[in-house]
Give the backbone structure.
Amino acid sequence: MNRISFAVIFAAAIVFSGCRTLKDSNESAENSAPQVIDLPEIEVEPEPEKVYHGSNTITNDLLHTRLDVSFDWEKQHLLGEAELTFKPHFYDVDSLVIDAKGMDLHTVAMLSDNDQKKNLSFSYDSLQIFIDLDSTFTRTDTFTVYIDYTARPNDLPEGGSAAISSDKGLYFINPLGEEDKPQQIWTQGETEASSCWFPTMDTPNEKTTQEIFITVDDRFKTLSNGELVYSNFNADNTRTDYWKQDLRHAPYLFMMTVGEFSVGRDKWMRASGEEIPVDYYVEEEYQDYVFKIFGNTPDMIEFYSNALGYEYPWAKYSQVAVRDYVSGAMENTSASIFGEFVQQTDRELLDGDREAIIAHELFHHWFGDLVTCESWANLPLNESFATYGEYLWFEHKYGKDKADYHRQNANGGYFSEAQNKKVDLIRFNYDHRMDMFDAHSYNKGGAILHMLRKTIGDEAFFVSLEKYLRDNEFEPAEIHHLRLAVEEVTGKDMNWFFNQWFLNSGHPVLDISYFYNDSLNQQQVVIKQLQDLESASVFKLPIDVEIWNGDEHRRQRVWLEHDEQIFRFDVDSKPTLVKVDADKSLLAQKTDNKPDEMWQELWANSSNYFDRYEALNEALNRSIPGDTTIIFEALSDPFWNIRAMALEGAQKIKAGRPQIENVLNQMVDHDPNSRVVATAIESIASIYPEKNYDQLFVNHLSDSSYTIIGAALFALSEVNPEKAMSEAKKLEDEESMEILLTIAELYAQDGSPKHNEFFIANSKEISGFELFPFMQSYSTFLNGQNDQVINKAIPIFVSTITETETWWVKFSGYQGLTNIRSDYEAQLEDLEKELSAAQSSENTDPKQVENLKSEISRVEAQIDKVQKVLEELKEKETNERILGMMGSK
């Protein structure tokens, strides 16, 4: 903070003012010398520096990348040679800057047409190579730079975010073959981590073709972008695979995977009759399920190609599941990579598949891979579309109920984040590019595209997307490219839409009221915008209003443009129902003050998922005549989530509808959805605890569905805890993460020290996303345990921190150790209070005092032990996010 003397500024102002006065009055300077008054210093806050992250300046265009790589598994190094072909973008150049993070550089040379190498002068700051080209090149020239290098990803400081938990680019899994997991190598380039394993121009507004030669032990399969041109078998029992990507794409989309995979071979057919390979790489134990996991992919490619009017552009499409992946999945061009969670058995698929994320990564191959955001500020051009691609697939394949339910969950994710984060969708002022990977870029962006579709109509929407893709194919784009495509197709100015939704923050908060004027035969609808206008503007909203008079439905579009408006509709008689936002397409939080009879009508006669959901939600939260009918009827709704939601009200309607018990049992026995069956089991346990349903719960512990088994185990624990613990013990060997996590939660609640061996044994078996909730349950279990149990647990939390890549799993280890310390600190506080009271009492037994002092010493020793472990871990920790969350203690 700068300190500025206000006295100096004041004196200067007097001098300048005095000079003008002197000139005007013809008085001499000596007779009118300014008087300087000393005033106290004030602190002036400097204006904060404005952050602007635009697109990267392109000085040299990267035209082609050729890589030749092999691996040192023991050191976890990549041994590479790169040939990078450039062309000056516009201005003449005599130097070059290349991104290359944490590498050993052995040779940097100019490569001639006959492959002769001429060494070049360069400097290197561990992030970028600064090269003197030794010649001047114009924009009509091309030149190729050769780099011999070693990539050392594990020596890089580790960063990451909630979406992408690590950014070191190249990962060796079980490199020495000593762990109980496959040996693998895989890469993760987004956002700018490709330059951790090969030199490149690591920016999304660069596009390059690609060749890569990968040399591995012959037992391994490889996968990369483009087509496998050939494999050469070498004398040392290695093999070199040559992969070639002829179409330009961004460097962050380069990928490479090495491992022992079982491959399911599929295909998709172009309109021309050309066969496009569609392959699925999984671990061998999942080979029998590979088509159930990924089998809808060819249909997805066909649907997206037709819907967009632009055929899938790439030479193949492969999908691979890897261990310990640092993100959910990644849309690398023609070869998407997924975390191990995508691998599911038949039983696991009963409880839900991974089709949404499979659709998401595929849709990126148009929005993200074909047309790429030119800067991370424009990331929603990638992620909003991929998120909306999920909706489009569900709508096409399974109908609007499933698609709308999916959209409802996505909207909820955005609303949750928006409580504490209010940012523009397209934003250039982020602190770090990883911050762009949030529920705004994904969830809100997808919702905005849905509103755009409903605003301009289906045909115009998809024609606009085709135009956007064709105008910008194989190029970077910004949000205005999309706007201009929409405007050219529709003939409409769309700045109002893009400005308020893409280039501004917030969302409307609407209060809707209804009034009928019988003297004028006029239905009035009053809509108020109640959002905080300091952080969000008044929105301009096209709203479709539907007026129902029995079987007669009339729809009219109105425009909400003020913070409060009254809309008047002439009608023949009082409407039976008024639907504002008839298709429920608005991204808005709404309070809909419908009269009771309108809620009844909405439930009885609307087929829209959101209508049924809102009517049921009203019935669950009120007590008026007819509500129990809605809840009861909802138990047989065609969509599973409505049925599951209705089960929340089963207790409410128990007294008036005694047949509810039979209905619940019927749902347990016959509902086709495992999550509904699980909820029905839990409902029976909570509504009828006095009845002997133990055997029902035990029977369902052998169900095919793990979700149902978990619900039955919890239900049994509510009515017969001892039996539940016995049955949980029998289920410990089930090969299901869901069951293990359920048992962990039950054991945490039970708290018996004998369960510690379960936690210790399974902490070594569980990895990936599931390790986080498992370690949380373990931390809960340890509360109040004896020193022997605690001391066995401490190394488990330490290994969680030191042996995992994912930052939030690492943090669960720190959290567990911190909780142990806090528990001991609470014990110490209680003991010190007890000791103080004992010492101040005249009747205290001296032995009691000595025992308390001994206990205090024991607890202090435990605190010191845990504190020392935390300090040692913190000293070695390189993840800034974790260090920030740990604080100074």
